[in-house]
Amino acid sequence: MHVLTGSSCPHPFISAACPLCRGSDAPGRSEPLATAQAVADALTAADGAAEIVLRDGELLTRPEALELLQQARKSSKSVELWTSGLMLARPGVIEAVLRAGVTTLALPLYGDAAESHDWVTGQSGHFQRVISGLKRVRALGGKTAVIAPLLRPTFRTLPLLVQKSQALDVAAFRFVALPGPDRAGQPLLPSLEMVAPYLRQALQMTAAAKRRASVLDVPPCLLGDRAAEMAKETVTAVIAAGAQAHARVHGPPCEACTWRAECRGLLEPTAERFGWAGLVARSDAPPTHSALK
Ligand code: SF4
To answer: Which protein residues touch ligand 1 with a CB less than 6 Å away?
Structure first.
């Protein structure tokens, strides 16, 4: 799966206060927009990939969005676009995106209910717009995915989120640890050790429902017997260069762990805030391919 980071969001009023987006209102998170040429170059570099994920920022706010999506489809038969979902409410946008070749539209759900989701985004009605977007994409024949950021206020509802999303015929779930920095005054970053039992339960539920799932930036020692499978789901991720390189900085992997060559460790803001205590060094063999880059 090739992952291209698209851009920071140039329209925070469209993306609300989405903590997935570096253009959100969190201190220190507003970053320069990647040029269209940089995104196009990254797509060219990913030519022939089995899957391409276009993520970060709000690609649909760019005037050249459809051209970039068409290029993505020429590079791969499978194109997943991450979007806040708000642009999808505009007439004809979903149809145009699907015509351009996007195979899966991935939308974020910050918890399983409107109350938590709208609190996180700071925008009343955002949850309902995402749900409507997911339904409309399916009605128009596209596949959908739910992006489930691992948040302090909502991580306990991850299994419930998977359960409720099944009624929407969601094809895949993307569980994502946030890169930080955290919001001042409204902390969102959780301890991943606390998240882990709920995440593992949610992953079991996706498997039982025969839905795809992937996990981004959670160390495999926290994923139990799903670690090797999740590693395969994130294989050969490619992060675009240039202004898009708002790199996710990871702390050093643990010396005693047999996965240390593969694991990038916790995200640095999480490690700084919660420390490394409690991580359990693995003693089994990691997957043979370099899976967690
Ligand atoms: S290297 Fe550290 S963070 Fe990574 S799996 Fe091993 S114990 Fe966990």
So the answer is: 219-221, 253-254, 257, 259-260, 263, 265, 279, 281-282
pTM: 0.86
Tell me the C-alpha distance between 218 and 68, whole Å. Answer: 30
What kind of architecture, by CATH, is found in domain 2-247?
Alpha-Beta Barrel (3.20)
Domain boundaries, the chain: 2-247
pLDDT 10s digits, 146-166: 999 999 999 999 999 999 999
Candidate from 259, 268, 283 with most ligand 1 atoms within 8 A of CB, to mutate: 259
Dump pLDDT digits (tens) for 70-82.
999 998 999 999 8
Q: How far is the CA of 256 from the centre of ligand 1 (A)?
A: 9
CB 183 within 8 A of CB 191: no
Residue nearest to atom 8 of ligand 1 (CA): 221
Residue closest via CA to ligand 1's atom 5 equals: 221
CA 260–ligand 1 middle distance (angstroms): 6
Tell me the C-alpha to C-alpha distance, in Å, between residue 47 and each of 50, 79, 238, 246: 9, 12, 12, 22
Taking Cα atoms as reference points, which of 274, 86, 103, 255 lies closest to residue 178?
274
Burial 273-291 (b: 16+ CB within 10 A, else e): bbeeeebeebeeebbeeeb
